[in-house]
Design brief:
Helix content: 40-55%
Shape: elongated
Number of strands: 8
Strand content: 15-25%
CATH superfamily of one domain: Alpha/Beta hydrolase fold, catalytic domain
CATH class of one domain: Alpha Beta
Oligomer: single chain
Radius of gyration: 22 Å
Strand order of the largest sheet: 1-2-4-3-5-6-7-8
């Protein structure tokens, strides 16, 4: 075959690949536009916004019974908090789930401190005419849950901490976190990664791949919902990037928290390491630590045990 003939064939192959990639990208982008529109509609219709002297807060209320204030982790919002809270606590509660500073419709402001975040929680409970609530803080929601328990001792009936941050994570941001933050800046890139590399991304955010593949259908649906409820990601990005700067209570300040506290943490959690749980248990006097050898950051496979232990804990603490 002549060089000229080979060149013509090579150009046709390249053209075919380019056309194929354009078609593939077009199909994927059409799918993305439909999915992101649904996600935006879902988060907008499910919540309200309340203005306080410390800033605005987005929240949703569902259910009847004793109140439970649900505080989400990184990459979340009121929707993630509601999902985790319902799974951990079960039925029979009046769930009040919030979006922290910089998530969805809770704007990030100059004074986005855990102290001001806790003050907003108190103002919201006043607005909803709720005197006391079970406080549930998941992951990066732990610091403001702890702050609320510290600053407003009469407003909480129990404190539940799931894989919670309890210490300053350090000025040096891990490379894995930088990668995740980069992906999460774009709704399309985040959607595409979830579509193409779902189990791999799940591992990056605390759901071990081997565990994800072995989950029961119900638990896998819960895990998928946790990932899907990060959509849309762009309005969550300001809060997500801010997480590394959060400075929780000191151990000395935690020592003044008197509310009954139950702490859940897996020893193989690489996002928020197990020493965070040990720090909490050491400094909060009236606390119980429930450890899991495995489970990752999200504790997906342990939700039944968590639900039972929380129920028993709340009942015995009354």
């Amino acid at each position: 075959m002549s060089l000229r003939r080979r060149g013509i064939i090579m150009k046709k192959v390249i053209l075919f690949i380019v056309i194929l990639l354009i078609v593939l990208f077009t199909v994927l982008y059409i799918q993305f536009r439909g999915g992101i529109a649904d996600a935006r509609q879902r988060v907008l219709k499910g919540s309200d916004v309340f203005s306080t002297e410390y800033g605005e807060i987005e929240y949703a209320v569902e259910g009847e019974g004793p109140a439970a204030l649900l505080i989400h982790g990184a990459g979340g919002g009121y929707d993630q908090g509601m999902l985790i809270g319902k799974k951990a606590l079960g039925d029979g509660f009046k769930f009040v789930s919030v979006s922290r500073f910089g998530y969805l419709r809770s704007p990030f402001i100059e004074e986005s401190t855990v102290e001001n975040q806790a003050a907003i929680y108190a103002a919201l409970l006043d607005h909803l005419e709720i005197d006391q609530a079970v406080i549930l803080g998941a992951s990066a929601g732990g610091p403001s849950a702890l702050q609320f328990a510290h600053d407003y001792p009469d407003r909480r009936s129990a404190l539940v901490l799931l894989s919670s941050v309890s210490m300053f994570m350090g000025d040096e941001i891990p490379m894995s976190t930088k990668v995740i933050n980069t992906i999460q800046k774009s709704d399309f890139s985040f959607w595409l990664v979830l579509k193409m590399f779902r189990s791999q991304f799940a591992e990056m955010v605390g759901i071990p791949q081997i565990l994800y593949e072995e989950l029961s259908p119900e638990d896998k649906k819960y895990a998928d919902n946790m990932l899907d409820f990060m959509h849309p990601m762009s309005p969550r990005s300001p809060g997500n990037i801010h997480e590394a700067k959060i400075r929780p209570l000191t151990g000395e300040a935690m020592g003044t928290i008197s509310v009954p506290t139950i702490i859940f943490h897996a020893k193989d959690d690489f996002l928020v390491t197990y020493d965070h749980a040990e720090f909490l248990n050491k400094h909060i006097n009236n606390s119980v630590l429930v450890s899991f050898e495995k489970g990752g950051h999200a504790l997906i496979a342990e939700t039944v045990v968590i639900n039972e232990r929380i129920r028993d804990f709340i009942t015995s603490s009354q």
